[in-house]
Amino acid sequence: DAKTTQPTSMDCAEGRAANLPCNHSTISGNEYVYWYRQIHSQGPQYIIHGLKNNETNEMASLIITEDRKSSTLILPHATLRDTAVYYCIVRVLGNSGNTPLVFGKGTRLSVIA
Amino acid sequence: ETGVTQTPRHLVMGMTNKKSLKCEQHLGHNAMYWYKQSAKKPLELMFVYNFKEQTENNSVPSRFSPECPNSSHLFLHLHTLQPEDSALYLCASSPDRVETQYFGPGTRLLVL
C-alpha cells in the first residue's frame, strides 16, 4: 500500500514548468513526503523530500499544502532528459531505524519538444 | 553517478545456474538494500542490511541468498531461479539515521 495517489501520466512542453501532483490524505504527522524518479531502465534517483515546509534544491521544488494532504513537485524548466516515472512516497524518518520505501505506480512524465 | 555501483549490468542465466550480483557503495553508508522490479510492477523491497546485519527479509524465496561482508558491499547469490524471476534488481544504500536512499543502476536479469 503506497499511501499516495498520483496521475498515471502527464505531458509537459520542453522549457515549461512541470507540476506533478500527489495526494496523501492519510499522511501521519511524522511522515515525510519523498520524491524519486526513474528514467527508463535505470535505478530510481532521489529528487527531494520535505515534512511541512516547502523545499527547493537544484533539481526541483516541493510544495506541501498546509494540511499536508497533498503536495506538488515542480520541475521549473523541464527538459527532454526529465522524461521519467516520478514517484511520490510518504515514510517515517526517525531514530527507530530505517523504514522502507514503498513505491507505487508513479506518474509517467513525458517532456515533449 | 550516485556512488552506488552494480555488476554485472546485464545477466542471462539458465534455471540450473548459480550466479551472484554485486553491489558496492562509496558513500560511507551503513544500510544497504536489495529491490526487485518486474515488468509493469512497482519496486519490491527484498532485503535490508544495517551495519552488516540483515534486518528485513520480505518473504523472499530461498533461491535468493543475500550476503553483506561489510558495510560497503552487498551480494545477491542466485540459485535455481525461475523464468518469473527475470527482472531488474536494484541495490540502494542510505546513511544510518538519515534514510534517504541512493540507488545503483541495477542488474537486468533474464532467466531462461
Describe the overall structure.
The complex is a heterodimer of chains A (113) and B (112). Chain A has 113 residues and is mainly beta. Helix content of chain A is 0%, strand content 46%. Chain A has no helices and 9 strands. In chain A, the strands form 2 sheets. In chain A, strands 1-9-8-3-4 form a 5-stranded mixed β-sheet, with no helix packed on it. A 4-stranded antiparallel β-sheet of chain A has the order 2-7-6-5, with no helix packed on it. In chain A, a hairpin with a 6-residue loop joins strand 3 and strand 4. The N and C termini of chain A lie far apart (35 Å). The mean pLDDT of chain A is 91. Chain B is mainly beta and 112 residues long. In chain B, the strands form 2 sheets. In chain B, strands 2, 4, 5, 6, 9, 10 and 11 form a 7-stranded mixed β-sheet that branches. Chain B is globular and about 35 Å long. Chain B starts with a strand and ends with a strand. The interface between A and B is medium-sized, with 22 and 28 residues.
- Give the percentage of residues in beta strands of chain A: over 45%
Major β-sheet of chain A, in short? 5 strands, mixed
The run of helices and strands of chain B is EEEEEEEEEEE
Rg of chain A, rounded, reads 14 Å
Strand order of the largest sheet of chain A: 1-9-8-3-4
Distance between the termini of chain A: 35 Å
Radius of gyration of chain B: 13 Å
State the oligomer: heterodimer
Q: In total, how many beta strands of chain B?
A: 11
Report the principal-axis shape of chain B: globular
Biggest sheet of chain B, in brief? Answer: 7 strands, mixed
Name the poorly predicted regions of chain A. none
What fraction, in percent, of the residue positions of chain A are helical? under 10%
Q: Give the strand content of chain B.
A: over 45%
Mean pLDDT of chain B: 91
